[in-house]
Amino acid sequence: MKYLRNLLIILIGILLGSLVHLKLNIKITGEELGSIADWFSGTIGAIGILVSLWIAFSKVKINILTALEQKNCRGCQLIIMNMSPNIIELFPVVEKNVSIVKPDKGIYRFNSVVDEDESKRTHELQIKFTNHKFAKLTFINIITGKKITIRMIRKRDGQWKLWKLKFLD
User: What is the pTM of this model?
Assistant: First the structure.
């Protein structure tokens, strides 16, 4: 985004410099370098190019919902649902004080929110905790290479709750 801002500033500077040169050139030599319509269409074309670059290079946003359902004192069900318009594929890379019991390890593919079938954009992972006060699961998105960390903490009554969901570059 900062590159596009710099590119826009440079484009505006070139445009203003060209307009000053045009005014001076008309006063000195009397020749004209295009009409207002030519300058307007060139400016709109440059703005169109900047907008298309911004759309092409904007970051892919990931929006996931997580829920934790406790079944007994050591086992839980972690529900992850994709709410973004993009397909995401998550691969577990770090498990701290927790292990995924079901389904077996592998890549979990989540279809986009556009998909009508909710079961294709939701995964229910059976997880098992060790006897610690916190647990962490880190996934890597295979498509974008970004990491997603889900942290869980045990409350005083022994129940686990989701504590933090963090997206890392």
Answer: 0.58
